[in-house]
């Protein structure tokens, strides 16, 4: 299983699931890191941690240890534009 | 104060409107545009979460706008968020549910903002959505179809540009006209359709975001932008080299302004207070009342106002950095450094500021949302060596630390090494204290550190000034009054019991003592010092200073100094030093002044060349009562400095800790622990120093 922590800087990955059910995982979900969403790893702080992410059109910073709890599908290729990522999403339950 | 041409309000009770939104959505800007300066600022009952209410009149109706703390969801993770949620649901003691909710939704970040909005709409209160930052969205190639969004959400959506007051009147109209919302189309079914195997929290998030994706489909149009403005700025600001350099420069600017830029302002205030004291003192007859007014009340008020420049400057910077989006980037850059001791990057600026003064530093901890991190930062801030400790360091290093090179390096002088070590001592002790506290008192599950890095934007002058005004006023009205009251009490302790006869007797015995020591003293320098002190007693000023010194030594404070002598003996101190340490409690910066009074110099300005030299001469000549043994030696000077580096002998800091934590437990605990640490540090320093230096 690949986690967000292992995603190279500049790459995009699709979230599979978030492990655990504590305040941190809850906050990650609320901030929009939900299964199926595409997350781009923009960079890391000079000391290597935390990471800067782009998700749902905004920027978010999380620590590497928390990124390890975000399971992702192996990279969907570098820098996927958002419109493309939307069309890749599975059909939503209605 | 009122938004629109409104005229007088009718007699009906004001409509209460809660302003809800994610952090960084332009919520405070909207608050100011609607209600102006808040008419009521306080704390919600039982918590230290700030309550801000502004009243305004629109179309003849009074409206109370309640600014709720920024929150990401209605499943609260912090006390701030809990207050927002409880208030909306009418669960807050003494506060009925509001009549309307205005949800601030950031157009640049619609999906995540709609998460909270969709939860709030479900409460069923009349709801209006204020769509902010449309201009910033346009810059980023984002266009939002507000009427269509309104139709899909089932409530009014009003686009506003708060700094330019666009859409504000329409928003106020919508507030008055708002009806309970329809249930948002498809939300319930989408939520119900989520895989039941997921945890409730995950189901909530997955379902809502699935619904939000449907809502924004066709409502938000994005012009493809290859590289947004945020991309370009972030590439520099979070860059390994440039980002670090920019950060260092920014922090240097912040620190310089509170450390040096504030100094002339503070001196100006002190000079002003002195003038007032002189004028008022001239109007009153000599006696206890004059002393109370001049030395107690006016001096006390001065010691409060003197903090204003540093607080105002620091909050100016914080508001500026927060307004443009740099504050969270700074926390992002520094996080790794503070994670090791159990804090986060958000503690960096409060702790850095504390090197200038703990008071603005502790207040700056308001920018830390996480309550545990905030409290820990508040408790560690006083351990950073503040500028009020510098005069003590300078005097002691200059007078008693030999100016010799260290390790044979000509430019590396011992006094400089000692000074640097004192700063390092505070940091190291703070780091150790943090490690111990996070493993004992503050033990618990890891705190979420999921921090939004908001889009870059121009800070707004009005919001920046409002932050400065708010911080300064909350200090003056909250902590200031208590500090003033405390100064008066401490004045009384250092002036009573007044016993003229005992003072005269003390002065006489002082004179006899000096004469006795002069007889048979061989050392020429000491003879000169002693005869100078003796001659001074014959001048009117010298006699007055001696009387004041005696009165101080015979006051309650002085008596307690003698009383605690057994406690300070192991630190190498005589009772006079114990006295000075106790008397410096009102504010650390007075310790040298107190030493001056205790050693019969009257009011010396230890910072000046002349005053400093006089004080140093007096201290060098000081001996243990009834002996020729000098009090001030290198180990004693080091022990004094270590004590002051670690102690919490600063009433104002403790009062601010009380205000900011809302409980007396923390200042008391902090004072006790820091005094114990300071004593231990001074003890080890003195004993080790004596052992090594013989």
Q: Can you give keywords for this protein?
A:
heterodimer, A: alpha+beta, SH3 type barrels, 3 helices, 6 strands, globular, B: 694 residues, alpha/beta, Rossmann fold, seven-stranded mixed sheet, elongated
Mean pLDDT of chain B: 86
CATH H-tier superfamily of chain A: Ferrous iron transport protein A (FeoA)
- What is the domain total for the residues of chain B? 4
Q: Which shape of chain B, going by the Cα principal axes?
A: elongated
Low-confidence parts of chain A lasting 5 or more residues at pLDDT below 50?
77-94
Label the CATH architecture of chain A: Roll
Helix vs. strand class of chain A: alpha+beta
**Overall SS class of chain B:** alpha/beta
CATH C-level category of the largest domain in chain B: Alpha Beta
Count of separate DSSP helical elements of chain B: 30
The number of helices of chain A is: 3
Evaluate the radius of gyration of chain A: 12 Å
- Integer average pLDDT of chain A: 80
The amount of beta strand of chain A, in percent, is 25-35%
C-alpha-based Rg of chain B, rounded: 30 Å
Query: Oligomeric status of the shown chains?
Result: heterodimer
Order of helices and strands of chain A: EEHEEEHEH
């Amino acid at each position: 299983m690949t986690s967000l922590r292992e995603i190279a800087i500049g790459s995009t990955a699709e979230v599979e699931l978030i492990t655990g059910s504590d305040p941190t995982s809850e906050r990650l979900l609320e901030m929009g890191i939900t299964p199926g969403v595409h997350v781009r790893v923009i960079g890391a702080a000079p000391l290597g941690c935390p990471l800067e992410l782009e998700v749902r059109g905004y920027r978010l910073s999380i620590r590497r240890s928390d990124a390890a709890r975000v399971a992702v599908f192996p990279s969907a290729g570098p820098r996927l534009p958002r419109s493309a990522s939307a069309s890749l999403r599975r059909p939503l339950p209605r | 104060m009122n938004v629109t041409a409104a005229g007088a309000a009718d007699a009906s009770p004001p409509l209460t409107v809660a302003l809800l939104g994610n952090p960084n959505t332009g919520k405070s800007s909207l608050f100011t545009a609607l209600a102006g300066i808040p008419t009521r600022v306080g704390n919600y009952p039982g918590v230290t979460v700030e309550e801000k209410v502004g009243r305004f009149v629109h179309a003849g109706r009074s409206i109370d706008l309640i600014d709720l703390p920024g929150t990401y969801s209605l499943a609260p993770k912090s006390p701030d968020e809990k207050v927002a949620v409880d208030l909306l649901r009418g669960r807050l003691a003494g506060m009925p549910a509001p009549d309307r909710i205005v949800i601030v939704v950031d157009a640049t970040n619609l999906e995540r903002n709609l998460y909270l909005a969709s939860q709030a709409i479900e409460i069923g209160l009349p709801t209006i959505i204020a769509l902010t930052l449309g201009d910033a969205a346009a810059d980023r190639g984002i266009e939002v179809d507000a009427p269509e969004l309104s139709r899909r959400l089932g409530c009014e959506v009003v686009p506003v540009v708060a700094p330019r007051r666009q859409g504000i009147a329409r928003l106020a109209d919508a507030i008055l006209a708002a009806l309970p919302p329809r249930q948002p189309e498809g939300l319930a079914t989408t939520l119900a359709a989520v895989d039941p195997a997921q945890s409730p929290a995950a189901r909530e998030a997955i379902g809502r975001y699935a619904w939000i994706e449907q809502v924004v489909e066709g409502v938000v149009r994005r012009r493809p932008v290859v590289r947004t403005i945020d991309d370009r700025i972030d590439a520099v600001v979070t860059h390994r080299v440039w980002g670090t350099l920019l950060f260092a420069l920014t922090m240097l600017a912040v620190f310089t302004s509170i450390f040096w830029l504030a100094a002339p302002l503070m001196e100006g205030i002190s000079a002003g207070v002195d003038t007032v004291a002189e004028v008022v003192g001239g109007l009153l007859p000599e006696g206890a009342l004059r002393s109370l007014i001049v030395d107690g009340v006016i001096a006390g008020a001065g010691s409060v106002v003197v903090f204003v420049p540093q607080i105002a400057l620091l909050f100016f910077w914080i508001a500026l950095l927060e307004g443009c989006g740099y504050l969270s980037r700074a926390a992002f850059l520094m996080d790794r450094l503070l994670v090791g001791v159990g804090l986060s990057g958000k503690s960096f600026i409060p702790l850095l500021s504390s090197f200038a003064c703990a008071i603005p530093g502790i207040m700056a901890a308001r920018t830390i949302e996480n309550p545990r991190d905030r409290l820990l930062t508040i408790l560690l801030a006083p351990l950073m060596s503040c500028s009020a400790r510098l005069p003590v360091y300078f005097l002691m290093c200059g007078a008693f630390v030999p100016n010799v090179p260290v390790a044979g390096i000509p430019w590396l002088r011992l006094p400089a090494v000692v000074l640097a070590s004192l700063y390092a001592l505070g940091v190291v002790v703070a780091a150790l204290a943090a490690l111990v506290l996070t493993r004992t008192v503050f033990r618990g599950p890891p705190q979420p550190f999921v921090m939004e890095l908001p889009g870059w934007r121009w800070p707004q002058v009005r919001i920046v000034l409002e932050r400065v005004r708010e911080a300064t006023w909350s200090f003056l009205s909250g902590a200031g009054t208590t500090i003033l009251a405390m100064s008066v009490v401490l004045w009384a302790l250092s002036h009573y019991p007044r016993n003229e006869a005992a003072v005269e007797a003390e002065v006489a015995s002082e004179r006899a003592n000096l004469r006795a020591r002069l007889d048979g003293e061989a050392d020429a320098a000491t003879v000169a010092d002693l005869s100078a002190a003796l001659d001074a007693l014959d001048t009117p000023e010298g006699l007055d200073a001696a009387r004041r010194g005696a009165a101080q030594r015979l006051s309650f404070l002085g008596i307690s100094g003698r009383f605690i002598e057994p406690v300070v003996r192991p630190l190498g101190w005589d009772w006079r030093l114990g006295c000075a340490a106790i008397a410096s409690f009102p504010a650390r910066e007075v310790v040298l002044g107190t030493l001056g009074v205790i050693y019969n110099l009257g009011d010396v300005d230890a910072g000046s060349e002349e005053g400093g030299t006089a004080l140093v001469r007096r201290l060098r000549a000081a001996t243990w009562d009834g002996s020729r043994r000098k009090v001030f030696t290198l180990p004693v000077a080091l022990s004094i400095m270590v004590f002051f580096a670690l102690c919490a002998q600063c009433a104002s800091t403790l009062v601010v800790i009380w205000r900011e934590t809302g409980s007396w437990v923390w200042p008391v605990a902090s004072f006790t622990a820091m005094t114990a640490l300071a004593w231990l540090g001074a003890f080890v320093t003195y004993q080790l120093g004596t052992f090594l230096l013989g």
